Structure formats: C-alpha cells, structure tokens
Amino acid sequence: MNDNANGHIRNEKEAEGSFAHRYRTLAAVMLGGIMGPIDGSIVNVVLPTISASFKAPLSVVQWVPMTYLLTVSSLLLFCGRLGDIVGYRRVYLAGLGGFVVSSALCGLAPSALWLIACRALQGVAAAMMMAVPFALITAAFPAHERGKALGINAISISAGLAIGPSLGGFITALLGWRFVFLINIPIGIVGFTFAAKVLPVVKGESGRIDWLGAGSGFIGLLGLLLFVHRAQTGYLSTVA
Length: 240
Hints:
mainly alpha
C-alpha cells in the first residue's frame, strides 16, 4: 500500500514537473501570436496615407490588407498539417522569424505593388504562427487547465484585432505609415528569442500534406475576394 502511494505521489510530481514551464510557453505563444491579428487590422486606417504616399489608386492599395488576409486564411490548415509533420515548435519559430523579415520588407517597400507582394509573404509567416499555438498550449498544460489557457490565448487574439486600427493611426501620426510594419521588428526579435528558449518540442502524427485541398482553398478565397473587389469598384464607378 505504501509502495502504491509513493508511486502515485512520484507520478504526480513527474507530471507537475513536465508542466512547470507552461505559463512561459503561453506567454511566448501570446507574444508572437498577437502580432498576426494586429497586422490583420492595423493598416485599415492608414490606407489613404499609403495611397497618397505611392500615388496609387485606393482600389489598388486595398489589396494590402486583402492579400494578407487571403494568404493567412488559405494557409492555416496547410501550416497546421505541416506542424504535425515537422513539429509545431519549428513551424512557429519559422513563422515568427519570417514575420520579422517580411515586416522589414513591407516597411521598406518602394511601391504599392511591392508592398502587396511583401504582405503576401507576411501572410504566409502569420499563418505559420497562428496555426500551431493551440497544439503547443495543449501539450504544455495539464488537461484541467487547458480550457483556461486557450481562453487566455483567445483573449490576446481578440485584443490584437481590436487595438490594431487605433495603434495603426497612432503610429502613423507619430512616426509615419512605414513604422506600422517596422515596429514588428524589435517585438518579433524579442518574441523569437524568448520562444526559442521556452517552447517545447511537440510533434503530431506524420503523413501527407493535402496540397489539392490547400490549393483549392486558396483559389476559392481568391475568387471570392476578386468578385467582391470588382463588384465594389463597379458600384463606385457607377455612383460617381
């Protein structure tokens, strides 16, 4: 009886030790994960400023946020499956590093078309960051705390979407629209360094990637956005 009790206590201590750094993992995921939602909404209020800076029509500059959201939405499932195969930590860190680099490219873009292309790259990186946090959090927390941890992470995502427009307007008024993207560089470097130290090595089941499904999703979303964009442009030209 005593042996069973001692074994039970030892198992509990081992389990508790394996989850000892769970809140560090959550903080690392939230620090990087909030950047994706913020950048999904931060440029909406500065589109007229970007349009004036590049002397480009607003109908063209509208693709700056649309391209980002299109890329993120169409690649989430793909990146999640990629995390199953190569490891969630690796995908997350690659996404965060790519987000820093693409943010620098966005901030230094010489034209509207270059900015749109760089936003597509930023969307790829954001999809990698946003697809795997749930798996990392689930692995880092015991079953009775996972709901709370996932809820806290969801709050950070909602907060990122909410503060994006106000933050974009403030940064643009203070420093210029390019710093809307360049501000990600120091934050991303800090987040990458911290995440590289604390994120656990977690891997799902290996298998194949559904390339056909990922491509079909991208084409479907692209067609929907093109339809909405054309309809909006045609309606505005009719009214004018």
